[in-house]
Amino acid sequence: MMRNNILGKAITHLPAELDAALKWLSVLKVEYSPTRFARYRKILEHVEAARIEIETRRINLESPWVKDGSWYDAMRKLDAFATLFEVNELAMIHQGLAGKKLDGYLSPKLKELVSGPDSYVTESGARIKARNTGFELAVAARMATAGFLIEPHPGLADVVARLNKATYIAECKRPQSEAGVFDAIRSAGKQLKTRYAQVSEDAVGIIALDLTKVFNPQLLVEAEVSECEIGQAITNRMNAFLNRHRAEFERVGDARTAGILLRHSLLGWSKSSRRISWVHKYGIRPMPGGSVAGVGAVRLMERALEVALTL
Fold first, then answer.
1. What is the largest CA-CA distance in the chain?
2. pLDDT category, 6, cuts 50, 70, 90?
3. Which end of the chain is more exposed for a tag (fewer CB within 10 A), N or C?
């Protein structure tokens, strides 16, 4: 079962994080649309202005972004939710991977990431490739934050990482709906079978799935009484997903593929604190039929990810 440990992140410091990430892209000579990110920046400024008005009780009822004193409603009127998601993703990738001596490996991937459509909600067809690459980078960033050494293997596995003496290979998939889950699992399993010969026959294979589109394709804000309940809702959803798709994971049939990494990201609204935050959870569990050594390495990975949440 997945444990109820999540990373919740307040959004008030996002403008500075966006600026730092864009500076990083410039240093790496990654060209991006100034118009797109200027729009993100402007929305963040409006969101912060709304927050200040509301929290200091200086509500300007004529303000175009504050009508009823609710920060949630202010952001809804601004159509700010997709912007918050996009900026948080880029900020997390920057914070996890900057300074890791991976510039040559990262540059083409970052160029792919910023070439996609402006909004997570409007991506479709071939245009999902940019955010597929973003998920690969997010997994690498999360592992790097947890102490893994990310290995540059362009053209081979999506992510290759080392921790202690173990080598991990992750194939990352973003099914766009529940109907796409079977193909995602099968494709990742087949790809991993070819990766072992390319990277290491002793590597631990990980099937990494981003379930955000499966659970919440329109990126709707999810409301619970408290931040803890938001986290519990994600955990329950992941556990139900694993139970529902156990047979598909069992069909992978390679003991070297020993782990399942799931990610779910959302914007959570706490009814008690009346705050919104970007919440994501990375949950990992052993693959049915994984080798003893592989399962042990997956448990080690699980502990490393948990410890990183407390830092």
1. 65
2. low
3. C
